[in-house]
Every structure is written in structure tokens, then in C-alpha cells.
């Protein structure tokens, strides 16, 4: 996968470049908007990480121009501008995601992986599974060890998301945006409560435990019991 980072702050840009290269990506780094725009227009990138406050051209303008030119690269805006209005503006202009500085690299990496998966060919999967848990998508049913488990619609969507991203750490904010289609920027416990209820249904009476808390980062679904 080939990524473009457009970031004028040298330390942040190099931090991103090095971390993404170590995570297995091919990365180009530009330190101003015009160079980044030229690369984005003339080369093919799977994803572009774009700062908004650039010295020569704003990230807003770049997103708009790239989309008007028909460029399909996933775009993740990374900015110190963190108001809801800023996020809505970025998404309306054509960005695929928005993260606020300062940021957790682990969460950034999780969001990048989630965005890149959108462009991957989707297999025609009617069932998702982990250990002895089976989710039948067309029938909207879930069983574990052959026992039917009744889930609410939101619990079903949450479990489906975990199953599609098995063994990956999913930050709370990413779960919120993907399952609830909302941004939870406060210390709300909505995600924790929902996951606790899901655990009570699929894990309490079964082994191995599937949903694990990764302290300081989020949650992951893994058939290897770590707790």
C-alpha cells in the first residue's frame, strides 16, 4: 500500500513517515501543500494523510480539488483544528476521516487500516466466525457453541465490526464512528457499556473469551483468551 503524507511540521512529518514505514507501508512525505498536491495528482496513492494548516495552500482546498479531479485516494485529515464544524466541513468536502492533533499513533494506524479495507474487494461472506461463535449475516442470527444468542440491532452491528477486524485493536473513537456513525470526543461511557452488554451475552457463559480490553487503547476480538 502506498501512502502520501502532507505535513509542514518537520518532526510530525518524519514521525508519521517512520512509523508508517515500520508498519509496512510505502510512504512519500511532502512538507508543503503544492508539492503534495502535485504528487497526489500525478501519482497513485491508496491513502493521503493531509494537514489542513499548510503554508501555501489549505488542506480544505486540496481535498476539494482532488475530488473535483476525480481522485479516488482515501483522504484522512490530520489537524489541530478540532471543532465539530471543522470535522463536518472536511467530510463534506470529500475527506474520508478526520483526526485531531495531538493524536495516538495506534489509533491513527487503526483508522488507516479501516480506510484501506474499504477499497479491498469484498468476499461474498454470508457467515463470520471466531472460535465456536457463528454469525449468519443473511439470517441476522448469532450462535455460540450451537446456542442461539439474541442481540439488539446495535449489538449485532458491533459484533459484526469486531468479527470483520479480528485480532486488530479498535480504539473507542473508531468503534463509535464506524458503528454509531458518530464522534465521541468526551469521556462518555456509551462504548464501554455497549461492549459490556455484548460480553455478557457472548462471553460470560463460554470459553474462550473473545472480546478483550487493551488498556489505554481500546478493544479487540481474539479467540486466544488473554485475560
Automatic annotation (TrEMBL):
Keywords: DNA-binding, Phosphoprotein, Transcription, Transcription regulation, Two-component regulatory system. Residues 2-116 form the Response regulatory domain. Residues 125-223 bind DNA. One of its GO terms (molecular function) is phosphorelay response regulator activity. GO terms for biological process: regulation of DNA-templated transcription. GO terms for cellular component: cytosol; protein-DNA complex. The keyword Transcription applies. InterPro entries: CheY-like_superfamily (IPR011006), CusR-like (IPR006291), OmpR/PhoB-type_DNA-bd (IPR001867), Sig_transdc_resp-reg_C-effctor (IPR016032), Sig_transdc_resp-reg_receiver (IPR001789), WalR-like (IPR039420), WH-like_DNA-bd_sf (IPR036388). The modification 4-aspartylphosphate is found at residue 51. It holds the Pfam family Response_reg. Residues 125-223 form the OmpR/PhoB-type domain. This is Response regulator. It comes from Candidatus Schmidhempelia bombi str. Bimp.
Amino acid at each position: 500500500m502506498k501512502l502520501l503524507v502532507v505535513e509542514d511540521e518537520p518532526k510530525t512529518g518524519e514521525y508519521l513517515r517512520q512509523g508508517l514505514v515500520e508498519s509496512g507501508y510505502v510512504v512519500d512525505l511532502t512538507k508543503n501543500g503544492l508539492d503534495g498536491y502535485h504528487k497526489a495528482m500525478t501519482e497513485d496513492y491508496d491513502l493521503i494523510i493531509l494537514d489542513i494548516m499548510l503554508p501555501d495552500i489549505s488542506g480544505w482546498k486540496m481535498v476539494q480539488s482532488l475530488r473535483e479531479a476525480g481522485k479516488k485516494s482515501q483522504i484522512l485529515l490530520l489537524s489541530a483544528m478540532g471543532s465539530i464544524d471543522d470535522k463536518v466541513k472536511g467530510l463534506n468536502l470529500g475527506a474520508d476521516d478526520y483526526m485531531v492533533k495531538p493524536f495516538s499513533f495506534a489509533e491513527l494506524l487503526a483508522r488507516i487500516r479501516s480506510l484501506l479495507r474499504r477499497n479491498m474487494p469484498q468476499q461474498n461472506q454470508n457467515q463470520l466466525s471466531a472460535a465456536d461463535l457463528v454469525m449468519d449475516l443473511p439470517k441476522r442470527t448469532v450462535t455460540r457453541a450451537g446456542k442461539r444468542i439474541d442481540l439488539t440491532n446495535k449489538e449485532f452491528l458491533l459484533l459484526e465490526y469486531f468479527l470483520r477486524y479480528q485480532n486488530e485493536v479498535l480504539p473507542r473513537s473508531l468503534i463509535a464512528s464506524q458503528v454509531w456513525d458518530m464522534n465521541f470526543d468526551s469521556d462518555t461511557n456509551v462504548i464501554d457499556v455497549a461492549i459490556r452488554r455484548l460480553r455478557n451475552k457472548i462471553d460470560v457463559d463460554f470459553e474462550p473469551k473473545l472480546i478483550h480490553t487493551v488498556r489505554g487503547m481500546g478493544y479487540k476480538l481474539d479467540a486466544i483468551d488473554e485475560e
